[in-house]
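Why predict the complex rather than its parts? Because the way molecules touch one another can change local conformation, and only a joint prediction can capture that. The input here totals 853 residues.
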Amino acid sequence: MNQVVHIFRKDCRRLWQIIATVLVFTSLHGYGEATSRSGAVAIGLSPYALFFVLVSLSRLILPVALFLLVVSVIQEESLVGSDRFWLTRPYDRLSLALEKLLFVVVWAVIPMLLHDVILIRHFDFSLSSALGLLLWKNAQFGFFLLVAATLAVLSAVFARAVLLAIVAVLIALLTFYIVLQKAGGPSIGSWTATYEILMVLAVAAVGALCVVAFQYRFRITSVAAAIGVAVVLVCALLARFWPSSLTAYLLQKNESPLLRSVQILPDADLKDIARPREVPDPATQARTAYYPFRALGLSDNVGVDLLGLSAHFDSPGQKSATLYLAAMVRFQPRAGGSERFADAGGPEQLVSFAPPFPGDYDRLKDTDGTLSGNLVLQGFRSAAARVPVPSPETRQDFAIAGRRCKVGSFLRERHLFVTFDCVELEPGSTSQFQVRLLQNNREIMPSGTPGQPSSAGGWPSFLSPIVRTYSQSDFELPGSAGLVGESTLALEMVVFAEQSLGGAVRTFHIEHFRPAEFSLQAWEQRGVLKAESTATQSNAGTVPKTQ
Amino acid sequence: MSSVISTAHLSKKFLSSEVVLDLSLEVPEASIFGYLGPNGAGKTTTIKTIMNIYVPSSGSATVLGLDSRCLSPERLQRIGYVSENQEMPGWMSVDYFLEYCSAFYPNWDASLCDALVKQFDLPRKRRLKQLSRGMRMKAALVSAIAYRPQLLILDEPFTGLDPLVRDELVEGILGISTEHGWTVFVSSHDLAEIENLVTHVAYLDRGRLQFSEELASLQDRFREVEVTCEGSVQMPAPWPEAWLKPATSSAVVRFVVTDYAEDRTPPQVKTMFPACRDLSVQPMSLRSIFVNLAKSRRATEFPEAS
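Output of the joint prediction:
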């Protein structure tokens, strides 16, 4: 223990400039996050301008400073080379490794944790609700530090660590390219790769830990580097051979309780379904078959987006064909007169099925077969709040669905602009944010902009525990509103926010699927579609999730 | 007398290059052991293997009774090491460097350290990187001596030093080691600088040990022989293996005898040179022995050039 403290004091004395840089930029970054100064534009040359420039740059400089801190402290007693002073001194390797860990914890992890806690408290989020986030964020931060440590134990000086980082990235890209280039198989949605990515990162972290431990124990750089390359290969192979059944299992296991009761069932007897979203490509539209589906078990404020599907069409005497989703579909409970959802959708929707190859449709359109597969869903919980439009140049606070927002407004010519400066905890569960304007309890217009997807967090995400989003809604006021240049006090807004509930996968099976008979026109003729087309408008405004 | 360092068939390879080959060496306790050899002979590699900086490719090395691969911090507290190539923490001042080192050694003798700093006239407040090479070596030596190590390993410690500094260091090492009965293992390619220092000597050439013995014994068995003959020299054949390649000029032939014996060698010379008119036998300095060995090797390797 004495040796740990002794070397620690020496390293602090040696690296005080880097420590100071990390602490200063951690503080500047925290200040920028708390005061939204990070986006400020500094004009002119003044100490203030310099300060704000540094605040703006903190997101870039802080990771570099942290990387430098970790690499420098490890390379103080470099494990590479045979002429290092410390090698012939009675250093205990375990104490040395513990000292490096202590140094990184004291000067990188704890300051960052304090930065996070202060930010979380600053925005009135409770620490208990942010505990999981803090753990997750620290795991990401730990991974970053571990990568830096791995590069440091394999190099003697900082420049070589940077060079090694570039080489490592190239090796990783090349390995993943070679291993994954022949990987095929149906993709059921990119977000379902989360588990795969997490597992690859976990293996990479364990591998990095092995390299660091090996170097501290044996100090054989060539072998340690070989272990590093082997870890990259293992990660690539894991990504290549990751079983999709495991993803499905994990998705089911971690499904939100609000989605567990949700069923999406095919039902050809449905009536008065809203017209589905247009398929952008007319040629694809022409070979797209539809089938009505009904959602059951949706809670009052819970909906699901059908993001993708993987379906196989089997017809006797024909080769099986794969079909995919041509246009996203949203299922949600009926409005029932209350303002819960920004969109006007319902629990019954037409789901589109398109073959990836035109020849498949021509071959199978007149056949009768079975269609079965998986529906890839993403759940969301919608919240709505009525907020008075604040007077111009004033700002007011309101909270919705885990978001803390400051809303302001200003008038320009015939336009009313409402600005939202919102924060929420990482990784940002708000998937959509929409505003409608009301006058005397009556909606006078929807938002001039579509729903605002929230950021999934800035890069690198371990730097901040909050996601900050700015949005502005532009309402072109009708002359009859008589508001131009007047107070906005009589106006109200309905703000809708959707929080992601995560993903879910459901199976389906349709007997007697006949593509030629299931075109959009065919369903229209059967009276399954609503006659009027105006009902489709608000649903068409739905934007894809970005989470 | 027990051995402080002992190697048994020690070899070290770097990829396909064999730097040390089948080295078996014994360094007696309380000796000042000169480890000699030309540049690139494998001296530094041997020392780094002994210090567990390199892992032996085969064979083993034992230091203070323990396998070099298992050198623990406790064992390193009894070994002092100074090398010409060692990367010192240049940002530290001399004072802080010594203070920092002191915490690693329970036996650190602050008064000895102070005395050495004064003796070597080291500027306490100056950073190591601002010191001259000689001063830096002195600082390293102080940091390796102040805890009274049982074994002091010096790898080319005098290279590039001016004679005054070198003499100071030699005197310092000699004085302290003889006073305390330490073992000193010193490698060098320049024999003149350690001739007055060592009690034992080993000679390494291209990774192979040529000999290892007490200096007195070595100097006893190496003699420079000059034979003046009547008329021109007739070179005897076969030439004895223990005699190094001769140099001749008309009636005079000079050569080095590596197994000189007072009662045996002069009669043998006279027998081999029947026309011998005058025989002169001179003792050799360590430097002469080294130079003659190196020349002989070169002559064997490149006979045309010689």
